[in-house]
Amino acid sequence: MEQEKILSTLSEKLGETSFSPQTLQTYVELNPIAEGSEPDEAYWNKAVNFLKGMQGQYNHDVATRVEDFKKNYKPQPTPPTPPTPPVPPKNDDELEKKLKELEARLDAEDSKKVQADLLKKVTAAMKAKQANDDYVLSKTLQGVTFDTKKTVDELVTEFLPKYDAEYKACRGYGTAPRTSDGSGGTQHNAASGYFERKGKKEGWKKN
């Protein structure tokens, strides 16, 4: 009988079994039938009894090991969940963009402070040059962005002519733009001094 036929018949005689087909094939290979012979009843009885006995021992061993495992098993404590690290920026470009935005805001704030400080200094310096009309002065310097590379004196020199022009536009031409005592302009005082000196020299101006 061919080995495949012997294996098939043995499986039928065993019925339900825990052994795999490979295990049964190994048994058949280790217990060959003489060439030209057919397995008799004694062969089948020996094979079935041996394999069923082995299966019983196998099942017993498995059950024993399962019980031992249940008795001796000690569950391992669950390790603590590590803290979630902060999510980094998606890429260097995004980080660089945020840094540039922050720098731009800081630069803008610094620029406002510098301009406000210059406005105070230039206003005070222009008043020292008899640019005393607060309304005209505020109009002259309204919305101005000062050149931070220039000194206060240079800025005063730059804005005094603008103050004079603004004064004439606001007040007309009847009064000089800048006054030293509140009653007349520098141009008026200069003219008065000239005629006073001329009168004394020519004799028509008394002391």
Kindly summarize this structure in a few lines:
By secondary structure, the chain is mainly alpha-helical.
Could you explain how this protein is built, in words?
66% of the residues lie in helices and 0% in strands. It has helices spanning 3-14, 21-30, 41-72, 92-128, 134-141, 152-171, 186-202. The termini are far apart. The protein is rod-shaped and about 170 Å long.
Key words describing this protein structure:
mainly alpha, single chain, 207 residues
Largest sheet: none
Distance between the termini: 162 Å
Overall 3D shape: rod-shaped
Number of DSSP helices? 7
The structure class reads: mainly alpha
Percentage of residues in helical conformation: 55-70%
The radius of gyration is: 57 Å
The share of residues in extended strands comes to under 5%
What ranges have pLDDT less than 50 throughout 5 or more consecutive residues? 181-195
**Helix and strand element order:** HHHHHHH
Name the average pLDDT: 76
How many beta-strand segments?
Answer: 0
Ordered list of secondary-structure elements with their pairings:
Layout: H1 3-14, H2 21-30, H3 41-72, H4 92-128, H5 134-141, H6 152-171, H7 186-202
Helix pairs in contact: 1-2, 4-6, 5-6
